[in-house]
């Protein structure tokens, strides 16, 4: 069965950096695009970033462009999100999510349970 | 930036039909997707490509899209369907950016 397990969340000061990881299992990781989605406390969902199955294309929400970098290591079945210049408004639960199909990887069929990032001094 | 608009809340009695709408200028050209999120849990896909239902999702969940509005319909809503529902789509600019609607809290009581 598909499993996505996020890690790396925690408390960080404004302006700081954090790297999130998502360990994937139960499917052929190297064949699927992957996403990060976040949810601020008590708020709605926000799409953050996408990476193609082979890492050749990466797309970002305007709110994180230039500060966050999505990457993957297909040999380790792991997705990453490097977050720099963090702001209070980046405080959220961060979910990794699997792109649904090869033909249309731009929506998600499985989600992890999320990792909480808190940006506070 | 592109926006999808949903009503903040919808309330029905058990057994009634719940309809949750999502409006967006690009929906005539782009698919809508629907996610259900119960309290404290990760979201679950309930409808994809406007009207398709993933395996394991009850038949009472259906989707449709017409013009600039997509609709999630829950026929015979159950107490366990109480959750937040989010529509998801992209704009037609080709800039590879995806958005969620603001979410609709469905109350079944």
Précis, in short:
The complex is a heterodimer of chains A (121) and B (109). Chain A has 121 residues and is mostly beta strands.
Low-confidence runs of chain A: none
Q: Which chains make the largest contact?
A: A-B, 20 and 24 residues
Any idea what the radius of gyration of chain A is?
Answer: 13 Å
Strand content of chain A: over 45%
Encode the helix/strand succession of chain B as letters. Answer: EEEEEEEEE
The global form of chain A is globular
How many distinct beta strands of chain B?
A: 9
- Termini gap of chain A: 40 Å
Mean pLDDT of chain B: 95
Number of helices of chain B: 0
What order do the helices and strands of chain A follow? EEEEEEEEEEE
Number of strands of chain A: 11
pLDDT averaged residue by residue of chain A:
96
The first-to-last residue Cα distance of chain B is: 36 Å
- Please identify the oligomeric state: heterodimer
The helix fraction of chain B, in percent, is under 10%
Largest sheet of chain B: 6 strands, mixed
* C-alpha Rg of chain B (nearest Å): 13 Å
Molecular structure report:
The complex is a heterodimer of chains A (121) and B (109). Chain A is mostly beta strands. Chain A has no helices and eleven strands. In chain A, the strands form two sheets. In chain A, strands 2, 4, 5, 6, 9, 10 and 11 form a seven-stranded mixed sheet that branches. Chain A has a four-stranded antiparallel sheet with strand order 1-3-8-7, with no helix packed on it. Chain A starts with a strand and ends with a strand. The mean pLDDT of chain A is 96. Chain B has 109 residues and is an all-beta fold. Chain B is 0% helix and 43% strand. Chain B has strands at 9-12, 18-23, 33-37, 44-47, 61-66, 69-74, 83-90, 98-100, 104-108. Chain B is globular and about 40 Å long. The termini of chain B are far apart. At the A-B interface, β5 and β10 of A face β3, β7 and β8 of B.
């Amino acid at each position: 069965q598909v499993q996505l397990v996020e890690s790396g969340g925690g408390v960080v000061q404004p302006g700081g950096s954090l790297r999130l990881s998502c360990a994937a299992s139960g499917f052929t990781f190297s064949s699927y695009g992957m996403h990060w989605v976040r949810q601020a406390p008590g708020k709605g969902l926000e799409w953050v970033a996408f990476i193609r199955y082979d890492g050749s294309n990466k797309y970002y929400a305007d709110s994180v462009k230039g500060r966050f970098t999505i990457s993957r290591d297909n040999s380790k079945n792991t997705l990453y999100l490097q977050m720099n210049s963090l702001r209070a408004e980046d405080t959220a639960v961060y979910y990794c999510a699997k792109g649904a199909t090869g033909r249309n990887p731009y929506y998600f069929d499985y989600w992890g349970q999320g990792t909480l990032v808190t940006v506070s001094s | 930036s592109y926006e999808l608009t949903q009503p903040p809340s919808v309330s029905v009695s058990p057994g009634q039909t719940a309809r949750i709408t999502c409006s967006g200028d690009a929906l005539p050209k782009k698919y809508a997707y629907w996610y259900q999120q119960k309290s404290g849990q990760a979201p679950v896909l309930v409808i994809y490509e406007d009207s398709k239902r993933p395996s394991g999702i009850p038949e009472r969940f259906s989707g449709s899209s017409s013009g600039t509005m997509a609709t999630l319909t829950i026929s015979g809503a159950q107490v366990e369907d109480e959750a937040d529902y989010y529509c998801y789509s992209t704009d037609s600019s080709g800039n590879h950016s995806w958005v969620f609607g603001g979410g609709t809290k469905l109350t079944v009581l």
